[in-house]
Amino acid sequence: MPRLPRVAPCAALLALLLATTSLRAQTVAATTIPLDQITVAGAAPPDAGTGARPGETAGSVTVPSVARQRAAVNATVGSVAFVDAADFQNRYANTLRDVLKDTPGVFVQERYGQELRLSVRGSGVARAFHLRGIELLQDGIPLNLADGSGDFYQIDPLALRSIEVYKGGNALTFGATTLGGAINVVTPTAYTALAPNILRIDGGSFNTIRESFQFSRIAGPADFLISGTATNSDGYRTHETQRTQNLNANLGYRLAPGVETRFYIGSYNTDQKLPGTLSLFDALNNPQRANPAAISGNQSRQVETQRIANRTSFLLDVGKLDIDTWAIHKSLYHPIFQVIDQDGWTYGIAPRWAGTVDVGGYRNDMILGLRAFAGQNSALQFTNVAGQRGGQTLRALQSASNYEAYGENRFWFLPDMALMTGAKLFSSNRTYSNKGGFAANPTVQFGNATYEGINPKLGLLWQPLPDIQVFGDITRSRDVPDFSDLAQSNLLRTTFVPLEAQRAWTYEAGTRGRIDRLAWDVTAYRSELREELINFSINPGLNIPAATFNAPRTLHQGIEAAVSLEVARDLTGIGDTVSLTQIWTHNDFRFVRDPVFGNNRIAGIPDDVLRTVLGYVHPSGFYLSPSVDWVPRGAFADHANTLRVPGYALFNVQTGIDFKNGVSLFVDARNLTDERYISDISVVTNAATAAGGAAALAAFYPGNGRSVFAGIRAAF
């Protein structure tokens, strides 16, 4: 058992403060500032017991209405984003890339199937697989494993009602303080669903077909919703076949006025063949090929995940108390350079109180929370014999535990200006036990590392006009290494490497709002990092997990911008509109006086990512939306900056019609010019010194070629 962390007394103190505040505080009327897309508007107090406003689709005590969700996001003093699932219901949304591609500051690129690179402000900038530096949540409850690692396979875009993006330290509202922040995907309930019944089928290129259903009902104090999606696709490349089945359900029950409990159940099965990486020449000239090692090793990723969670909510005299509990079981069979065979559980509890109190006649918004979560993972490895287990090479146990206390406060010292303060105290333990005893790995090894600290936050929010907000803040982040960092593998053995936690100070300033036909959301940030967790691939062609080291000093800075202009109205005289939207993410990530890499760029992510969307909407339900995804200069493939991939531009068109009877038809055409491009890179230290030279370096994922998808959806 891990020793009692020093943060525990602080957690107890925070819990006492929470209880005392609930007893003593005085309720005041809140003037919430919801930002609808990039629109700020006033709001009335919520209806008692539902969280809804007059004239708005009601939510419930555990899950507020979508407008309430948006309001909570945009009350944040810092860079955030809110995506309503209604915006992507009628297009081919298969991955988080399809959901978040219009969100500035979020870099998300497909590798194959549902495997992505997801990075916010350079989180996991050189990570060649899965996720690091971002906390994923579903319905406000963590999806990441206890060590902080995570992937994307259990997120079904067709099972979502909204997505909340909290960049960097702005994710403190959930207790997350990683460099990248948090992304919360919210599933619908019977109260917030777009329709009681939804049936959908879509498909197209690469022999893709997907079926989905959603069914919900309200019966007195009870409500339930169940949804499921099955996807089958051969993929763009050889050996990229994808088979997934996702099931999500929730059941809510109103125990008493203002008291509600809701259970979430999920089952997620994925069987994804891996095509591997290619040389730069093959990726641009023979992009549908698979790496020969991926075929001979029958490389794949087979994941079975089950999740059960509960939120019980209490509307108090002051504010609301949510108590979350969860358990996640994950089984992974993953033949790559070796067969990785893992099975583990993650479980946790997290009470959180939020409310508005009167402090000396001034409005004061508060959030207080605790989180305790832990897990164990049995980590086995075997030689890979055409995708089957050969001789065993590793038998290890990975244990992680986390204890956290956090709080955030917004004090409105003027009617249009608020001071935000906050902090998180944490203690995280990582214990690794390698049992050894194998010819390939005879050594018994035990590793133990505990990471503790406090992450403060300070900011200012100004609302000079009802539809305009200006903000600035300073936040501290800490990224604790996960077991992919700590237990590093190569062809010979697996070794525990006691890395330091990555820490950073981030400064940001921005504005969001709307003036007539012009809407904007613009933020500039600068993160000064110490001991950044930097990855590089030892041999990307064999799919060996990347090695990790601490870079003494690095710098991440950039601009996150989205500007939208309604350029024309009533073209045909009956309410149709034409709008133009420009999204720009500027990334400047570099080493600072590094003893090996000097001031070089950190490889893996391009400097600029731009997306331009022209939209036409007709009151009949018809819409047409051509777009361009443009990367002027590709990313470096190595930290030595000797090899850069070419830039590219992709032309896309989406069109469809929503009939008044609830039936929708859509067509989604992508990369119409069949552009050959690099979508992602398995970063190395120096391409020039790689075995066989840069020309032989198999470190590149080709982007998908021309594709067309179409579908029909019925909501009734």
UniProtKB/TrEMBL annotation:
Domain TonB-dependent receptor-like beta-barrel residue range list? 206-672
- Residue ranges annotated as transmembrane are none
Membrane: present as a keyword of the record?
yes
Gene Ontology annotations of biological process type: siderophore transmembrane transport
Which CDD domains does this chain map to? ligand_gated_channel
Sequence motif TonB C-terminal box, location on chain: 699-716
Keywords from UniProt, A to Z, are: Cell outer membrane, Membrane, Receptor, Signal, TonB box, Transmembrane, Transmembrane beta strand, Transport
Tree of life domain: Bacteria
Q: Which GO terms describe its molecular function?
A: siderophore uptake transmembrane transporter activity
Protein name per UniProt: TonB-dependent receptor
